Records
---
Amino acid sequence: MEPNQTIQVKFVGNYPIAWEPPAPGESQASSQLSDLPSEMFDSQPTVSDSGFPSTNEELKQQFVAFVEERMRGARGDSDPEAEFCDPETDKRNMLKGYHALLAIVHDPTSTLVATNTTRLKLFMELNRIKFLESAFDALCRNYLSDIDKLGKLWLEKSMQDPAHAGRRKPDREAQEIVPGWYNKMCTLTGGTFLVEAAHIIDVRVTKKLGADKNAHSIWNLLKVFWPLEDLRALTISGDEQRNILPLRVDAHRFWDSHQFALRPLEHPADPTHRLYLQMVWLKDITTEGNLASSPWDHRKNGTITDFRRGNHDNDTFPAIRHGDVFELVTADKAMRPLPNPHFLRLRYAAQKLLAGMMAAGALKDIFRGPPPRGIEGPVRDEAHMPGDWEVLIEAAQQGGVLSPEAAEQWRCYILEEAYQEHQKQLEEYTEWRAKNRILPKGKEVDDEGQGS
C-alpha cells in the first residue's frame, strides 16, 4: 500500500515519563519543563494552620509516612520481614491496595487530593475535618475502596470460557479490518510476523457490566487518581475499530500480562491525524520508582525490538526502551481513524494502578509467610475466582515469589473465601426478599403473608 493509504508509525525519541509533546514552534527542551516539580513554577499558598504542610512535596511525604504506618498495621507487626500474624484475605487486600496507592502517590502524573495542599484544605473544610491525620484516614479508606473496585472491574474474567465466546460481530470485523490499516505491521516493533489485533479495552472488561457501562464506571473511578476529563459516557459500541491496536504476538502477551503500558499523548495541533504512544515498562517497578524509571532487565525478562531501526544487514535492532515515544499518523481520519485516546488513557491509568501491587516487592509482602494449609476449596464450577487475586497469584508464581504448590494453596484459600462471601450475600439477599415480601414471579401473597 501507498503511505497515504496506511497509518504510519515512526520512532520520535526517548523521553521522561512526564514528557509532553511540544506545541508548534516549541522546542523539545521546553516541552520537558513538565517533568520538574510544580513548586518551581507555581506559587504554592502557605497554609498558616499549625502543623499543616506548606508545600505539596511536604504534604506528599507526610501522606507516604501515613500509608506506610497503615501498612505496618495491616501486617500486624512493625517488621516487614516477619511472617503474617493472620492470613485473612481482608488484611492482604488492604496491603495490595496500599502498595498500589504508594505507586500512585509517587507517579508524577497523578492528581490526588491527599497530596495537594489547596485541594486537601478545601476537602477538610467541606467535610468539617480538623486534623490532618483524620483527613488522611478518610481519603485512604476511599482510595482503597476505589482501588479494590477498579481491580475487580478491570481484571475480573468473564464467566464464559473461552474469553472470545459470544463476541459481537462488529468486534470480530474490527479485528479483521484494522491490522490492514497498518499494512499488517505491529505498531511497536514494525514486525509483520504473527501480528494480532489486540484490544485496548479488553473483552473481559466489556462483558462484566456491558461494554459501555463498565468502561465509563472504570473511567470515573480512575479520575480520582489521574487528571482524566469529565465524560458523560465512554462508548465502545459503534467504535470497535478504534479499540484495536495491531501488535506482534510477543508484544501482545507482554501488554496483556501488564509487563508494560502505553502512555497516550494527543498531538497539540492535529489530534485527529496524529497521536503519540510512550512505552512504560512496568515489571518490577518499586514504590520509589515513580513509574518514571524502570529497572527492566531486557536480557532476563525478555524484550521486544524495533525492526524499523537498526541494521538489517547484520540483523541488529534496538530493544524498545522505557520512555521510547512513537508517533502514529493517519492521512484519512474517516476511513482509517487512529485508536481512541480515551480508550488508551483508560487502559494506561488502569495498568499504572496495577503496577504497584504487581511489583516484586509488593508480591513478596502480600504473600509473605506460609500459605494457608488444609483448605481444598469449593468445586470450581460452584465458585468464581476473583480476577485481581488470580492475576496476582500468577504474577507471584512467574516471579518466583510462590512455588506452584504454594500458588495452588493460595488459589484454594482465596476461592473458598470468595465462595463463602458469595453464599453470605445470597443469604442476606434471600432474607431481604422475605422481609419485603418479594416472591418469585407467578406467586401471590395472601392476607396472612403466605405465598401461594
---
Amino acid sequence: MHMRQILALFVALLVGGTGQAADVDEPAPGWCAAAVAPAQNRAAVFCSDVEGAALSRLNELLDGMRLTFAQKRAQAEPWARQYRDLKQRLNLLSDNEARLPVLQRMVADGCFEEAGALLQDALNSRRLSRGQRSEYRFAVARTLSLQFRQRDALAYYEEAFRESPDTFAYALSYAEALRQEHRDEEARAAYQHALATARRGVAREGSTSSPAEAMTLISLATLSRDGGRASEAERHYRRALEIYHELRDERYAGKSAEVLNHLGVLYHMAENIRAAELAYQEALAVYRSLAQANAAAYLPDVAGILHNLTLLYRGAERRQEAQRVTRAEHDVYRLLVSDGYAAYIPELANSLNSLGVLYHTSGRLLEAESAYRESVAFYRSVAQYDPAGCLEELAGALNNLGVLYRDTQRMGEASLALHEASQMRSGLASRKPRVYTADLVQTLANLQKVYRQMGWTYEAQGIADRLEKLGVIP
C-alpha cells in the first residue's frame, strides 16, 4: 500500500490526549462533532458536555493550530475527556480547599492558565500529604494539557507518577504524554506499568478484566503498530476486544468498534485483505447500530469505516464493491451536511471525487463528470472560511476533471481546469517539494498533452521546459 493511502486511513480515536478520567470503569459520556460557525465564518467543534466558555476556548486553541475539520474533531474528543476529568478532580481535591469554587469557575470559563497558577500556588504554599501533592501536580498537568502545552504537562505527569506510581490514571497519563513527545521506549515501559497496575486492580476486585486494562492495551497496541511490531499489536488489540466482550456492557460497544477498526487498519497495512475486510465490516455493523440512537456522534465513524473499505477495495481492484461503499460513504456525508453539520463538506467532496474516479475508470463518463464538478464546487465553498484548507484536494479534483474533459475531446475546458490545477500544485510544490512535486508533474504532463492536441505548440513547449527543470524528460 502506498504511504499516502496509509496516511488516509481513518483511525478511530485512541485513548488519546494525555490520559483519561479518574473513573476508568465508566465509558466517557460525551462526544464531539464538527460544524461551521456562520457568525465567525469558520469551522468549529462542539462537544456535548463542555460549557460554552470552555468550548469557545477550545475552538480558539484549535484555530491557532491550522487543522482540518477531521483533525479538529480528533483533538477535541480527548480534550473533552481531560476537561471532564479535571472538573471531577477539582471536586475531590479537598473539602477544606477554600479556593475550590474559584478554580471550578476558572475551568468552566476556559481560564486554564489562571487555574493552573492557583493550583501551583496551593501546591507550593500548603502542607500536603504525598497523595495530595500527586493529585495537585496531576491537576496542574491537566490545565496544561487543556492548553495543548503537552511538553510542559509531561513534567507534572511524571512527578505525579513518581510520587504515586500505583495510581493507574497517573501511570497511563504519563505514558500517553511520553508517546506524544515521541519517547516511545519510555512510553512502552510506562504503559506496561499501567497495565500491571490495572491487572492488580482486577485481581483485588476478584474479576477477570476491566476497561482500564483494555484501554491500556489499545494504546500499547497502537504504539507497537506504529513501531512495526505487527504481531505484538495484533495480540494486544485482540485481548482488548476480548475484554470488552467479557464486560457484556452495551456502553462499550463503541470501544469494541474502535478496536475492530484498529485491527482492520493493521491488516490493511499488511495487505491481508480478507482479514481487514472482516474487521472493517464488523466495526461498520456496530457503528451503524450506534448511529441509530445518536447519529451526530456515530455517523462520522460509519463514514470513516466506509472510507477504509473503499481504499481496501480499490487497492484490491474490486471496482464494483469500491463503487458501492463509496456511494454509501457519500450518502452518509450528504446526510450529515444536510442535517447542518457543514464541517463535513470536505469529506463529502472527497467522497464525490472518489466516486468520480471510479466512474471515470469504468467508462461512466457522464456520472464521473457530475461527481467531479460537484466535488470542485464543494471544495471551492470551503475556501470561504478556510482558504488553504482543501487546496490540495481541489487541485486533485480539477486535475481529474481536466483529464475527463480531454477524454471527451473538450479541449478548451480541459486546458482551463488543468491550468488552474497546475497553478495550485505549483504553489504547493514550492512549499513542500518532496510531497507535491510528483502531483505537479502529473498535471503538467496532462496539460502538455492537451496543448499538443489543440495545436498550441508554443504553450506545449513551455510546459516541456518546466518539466525539464523538474528533472522530467517530456
---
Amino acid sequence: MVDGGTTSRPAGRRNWIIAAGVVVAVAVVVVIAGFAFLGGQPSGGAPALSRVTITPDASGDMEVGESRGFNATAYDQNGRTLSGATFTWSLAQSRGTLSSTTGNHTSFSATTVGAETLRVNASVNGLTKSDVAAVSIIAFMTMGVTLSMSTDGQNWILTVVYAPPGKPYTGENLAIFHPNGTVNLSATPLASLQAAVHGCTLNMAFPGSTTVKAGDRILCSTYWYATDSTYQISDRIGVRASGTLR
C-alpha cells in the first residue's frame, strides 16, 4: 500500500501490458491497410497491352514460290489474350508479298532468295507493341528421277534419286499425259496411287515414311500408259520432276 490507499503494480508487468497494446495496435493497422490495398488494387490492374507474338503456320526454310501463313496474338500484363487489338504487318526486305497488311493473320509469298523479316505492330488504347519473324528463302528445289522399264516390260519405273527434304507423299502429285496431249492421269497424290485405279503404285524405300525419299519407286503400267507419254511430279509450289516414258 502507498499513501492514498492505492496499490502499486510491479514495473515489469506494467511494461508488458504497454508492449502488448502496441503490438495489437500495429497489427490492426496492418490488417486495415491490407484490406484497403486489396480492395482498391485489382490484381495486375486493368487489362492493358503488354506484348504481341507471331506464330507461323510452318517452320523451316521457304522455297521461292511458296506461301506461308503467320498469325499475331496480343496479350495483356497477366499473360491473357487481349481482344480489340489492331494489327499492322510489314516486310523489311521485300523478298515477297503479303496477302494482307492488316488483321491478325497474313500469308507471305516468297519471290526472291534471301532473308526476310516480317514485322507486326499491335495497338490497343494508344499502346503499341511489336514482334518480328525471320524467314530464310531458298531456291525452288527439283526432284531427281530416273526412268527405266521392268525386265518383263510391264511397268515403267520412276526411281527417286534425290528428293527435297520434308516433301510428304500426300502433297506430291503424279500426272501423266498421252502423247497427243490428253490427260491420262490427273494429278494424284503419291500416297493415293493404286494399281487397279490409276495403273500406278508407290514402292517406298523406307516403309512407314511419310515423306519422299531417295530410293522410292513409282511403277506405272506400260499397258495403261503408252510410249512417249509424259509425266510430271508436282506440288502446290511447282513441278518437281518431269520426263517422257520411253
---
Amino acid sequence: MEEQNDFSAQEAALGKMIGNNFELEPTGDYISRARLAAALTDKVRYMMQYQLEELFSKLYRLDIFERKIKEVMAEGGDIAKKIADLIIDRQLEKNISKRENPPSTPEDEDLAW
C-alpha cells in the first residue's frame, strides 16, 4: 500500500517524464501506475522488436541497472512488462532520493554558482 501512495503522490510528474522519454501518446496525467505501466509496456514491446538498440540506450540513460535487465531477460515471461516495471520503479527510487536528500545550498552566497 505504501508503494501505491508513493506513486499517487508523484504520478503526474513521473508519468510525464516517462511519457516524454518514451514518446508515449499524451493522455494528460496518468491516473494510475497500472495505466502508465500498460502504455509503457506496449512501447517497450515495440522497441524490443524494432528499436532494440535505442531501448537499451534509453535504459542506460535512465540508470536502469544492467544486472536487473539481464535477470528479467533470463526469467522469460512478459519481458516488456517487467522492463516497464523496472523503469517505473527506478524513477520512483530517484524521485524519493531527491525528495529525501535535497541539494544543499552554500551558506556563503559567493560560493553559489
